[in-house]
């Protein structure tokens, strides 16, 4: 088929799946950031320590987690996550195909419109591999302790996301690894955002520079949402809880 065999078709698949990545990260990051808001309203520690308050749903982060468990969201999240994984895995495969087609290893080549001077643009494959590796690391901390036991009955189910945040980010070295991961995601998004619009033909001469700026803003927002959540959980676990 044209969409799978042509370079334009392959880039189109990457663009659409990349849109899933952006939506998934914005949704996920916003829900996680609710835990930071809870810490300022005095509900983070109370809800994490008091099972009655937790069960009553007191706390934005708990309410956000409950919202993520609703029927419609339960269907949409796996779809978004699948688009996320397709984007990364397919991107790695495309990059490898490009390397073989050129007869050797070269850095990721971009169109002249990108000026080929962006570090993230030249290293999308490296960033993709880092992100994919850390996804596996991340799943062992949260998905394996919440969704996996609930959906498939495998492992021990952890019902309190506040405690899970504390246990995960309470270790300084885990926090550092996650921040490195968040930075890699941000660098990937800086290039990927405007490239997505360029591929589908939504970036004219006027909008190209604007999309690059918007891409940086979106990437920074996503990274800050996740970093704030992780750092706040580290503080809660080690200095407040």
Describe the structure.
With 241 residues, the chain is an all-alpha fold. Helix content is 78%, strand content 0%. The longest helix has 34 residues, at 7-40. The chain is elongated. The model is unreliable at 107-117 (pLDDT under 50).
Keywords:
single chain, 241 residues, mainly alpha, 0% strand
Give a short synopsis of this structure.
This protein is mainly alpha-helical. It has one domain. It contains twelve helices and no strands.
Shape: elongated
Average pLDDT, all residues: 76
**Rg:** 20 Å
Number of helices: 12
Specify the structural class.
mainly alpha
Compute the number of strand runs.
0
Helix content: over 70%
**Biggest beta-sheet profile:** none
Task: Report, as a whole number of angstroms, the end-to-end distance.
Answer: 57 Å
Low-confidence stretches: 107-117
Write down the oligomeric state.
single chain
Strand content: under 5%
What is the number of domains? Answer: 1
Sequence of secondary-structure elements = HHHHHHHHHHHH
